[in-house]
Amino acid sequence: MAGGPELVFAPLGGVGEIGMNLALYGLGDGGKRTWLVVDLGVSFAGDDLPGVDLIMPDVAFLIEQRRNLAGLVLTHAHEDHFGALLDLWPKVRCPVYATPFTAALFEAKRLGEPLAPDVPVKVVPLGSRFDVGPFDVELVSVSHSIPESNALIIRTPLGNVLHTGDWKLDPTPIIGPPTDEAKLKRLGDEGCLALIGDSTNAVREGRSPSEADVAKTLRELIAGATGRIAVTTFASNVARMRAVAEAAAAAGREVVVGRAMARVEQVARETGYLDGIADFRSVEAYGYLPRDKVVALCTGSQGEPRAAIARISEDQHPEVTLSQGDMVIFSSRTIPGNEKAVGKLINGLVRQGIEVVTDRTHLVHVSGHPRRTEMAELYQWVRPRIAIPVHGEALHLSEHAKLARGAGVGEVILCGDGDLVRLAPGPAGLIDEVPAARLYKDGALLISAEARTVADRRRLSFSGIAIVALVLSEKGELLADPDVELIGIPEHTADKASMLDIAYDAAVDTFASLAKPRRRDPQAVEEAVKRGVRAAIASHWQKKPICLVQVITV
Ligand SMILES: [Zn+2]
Ligand SMILES: [Zn+2]
């Protein structure tokens, strides 16, 4: 439909998965739209992407539309919402808006990375209202698992949108204001066209417990302990950090932290979230403090091998040791995919006689996302005409869609990354697609997920490689013995023959079997030897290696 202005929504990441959030809102007619960008996050790569650290949304569409980008608003400082900013902002270069804690944590992260670009961030107060191009944006404070999570009310001439960001209802969040219920209800009275919302816990009934409940459990556990205590959690969970610090102080213990925690601690102190809490000590102090006077607050709750708790569990940490009778509290949830690593960590600790407490037996962790009762409540307050589930995998999105319909929402749109959804005027629906893809952070480089690199690496990891070099004269005579090397291939066959000899013989025999004129064609030699060597190894191994043949003619 050509003609008048439209309001559209286009997610480029974060729909169909939890991670890598990037949402666009567009205003204008089909030929020329102005865009508001919300968040620019990363996902963490699993074992299926060997050597890849992070996954990011491909911002080709943003680069193409660079002149039409009004600005980028960060909802909060979790990596799945702001983790790609340092790498991708230089390609996009639009104004960036964030609240004080998010801006300060971003700056601390930037200073920690050599050669990081200078990204100008406009700091906006909590609850403030400001224009981003033609979009009138108002922040709504929501509770979550990091300070200063914000929902956005985006007002346009074609209607008001509520972009929830990550939120939950927590009347006692330990730090920061609880979710601004009054403002959300006012939006409902004013009229809300569309709610674009968090689906993470849409499969969970009831309400999420409060941070205050977790703080109570931590206080009891720490008060009752007689040995040393280590607590692992996400560094960015400042409410949890504060709860541990208060529990430690109540039990006459001091808190020691490593570098990752200290970085967030400093930002939290600058922004006032640790007011009244005694300074934490650096890990060097750990060894001097009596066993019953210390709590180590550490990272590594997901089993990350280089993090503090993993090194402690292997007794490899230079400063922090634990022994029989000490306690480790996992104040965290294991993210799917990390179960094995976390299991290994826990078993390592238990073997040393250390007591391990997890959320399976004690309320030492709560999610920062709303369960179904909280979601239903939000729909009652806001009463949107349209609902679009985001921030979830397919199951979460479809459960959220059912819940929204049940809450009386007339139009519920299920979409995916790269869909262009019209919100107004007229009925909502998918009208087009925009380019959406993934980038991998591989060492210092960003590579396309479509490139062969990682697929090759995965293939190498299970099939090994055979390398053959042949030196030929121009007349096609073999001038030296072939050079053969095997990497990642078994050394011996089932009947103890040398695989290297088999590959070598295959190379020589294949070459000898070629007709004389073919031996003068390096390409033909290469192809034939490759096939011969692969087949010879495969006949013993029942697996085909990658085979590289180099023919050098002198
Ligand atoms: Zn979050
Ligand atoms: Zn998130």
Core attributes:
eight-stranded mixed sheet, alpha/beta, seven-stranded mixed sheet, single chain
Describe the structure.
- This protein has 554 residues and is α/β, with parallel strands linked by helices.
- It contains 16 helices and 30 strands.
- The protein is globular.
- The model has no long low-confidence stretch (mean pLDDT 95).
- The structure holds zinc ion (2 copies).
- One zinc ion binds at residues 78, 80-81, 166, 391.
Chain-averaged pLDDT: 95
Structural class: alpha/beta
Please tell me what the overall shape is: globular
* Unreliably modeled segments: none
Number of strands: 30
Largest sheet data: 8 strands, mixed
Computed over alpha carbons, the radius of gyration is 29 Å
Bound molecules: zinc ion
What's a concise summary of this model?
This protein is α/β, with parallel strands linked by helices and 554 residues long.
Layout of strands and helices, then pairs:
Layout: E1 6-13, E2 15-16, E3 22-29, E4 32-38, E5 43-44, E6 54-57, H1 60-64, E7 69-73, H2 79-82, H3 85-92, E8 96-98, H4 100-111, E9 121-123, E10 129-132, E11 135-142, E12 149-156, E13 159-163, H5 181-190, E14 194-198, H6 211-224, E15 229-232, H7 238-250, E16 254-257, H8 259-270, E17 281-282, E18 294-298, H9 308-313, E19 327-330, H10 339-351, E20 355-357, H11 372-382, E21 386-390, E22 392-393, H12 394-406, E23 411-412, E24 419-424, E25 429-433, E26 438-442, E27 445-448, H13 453-463, E28 465-472, E29 483-487, H14 499-513, H15 516-519, H16 522-541, E30 546-553
Parallel strand pairs: 2-22, 4-7, 7-8, 8-9, 13-14, 14-21, 15-18, 15-19, 16-17, 16-18, 19-20, 21-23, 28-30
Antiparallel strand pairs: 1-3, 1-24, 3-4, 5-6, 6-26, 10-11, 11-12, 12-13, 24-25, 26-27, 28-29
The structure holds zinc ion (2 copies).
One zinc ion (ZN) binds next to helix 2.
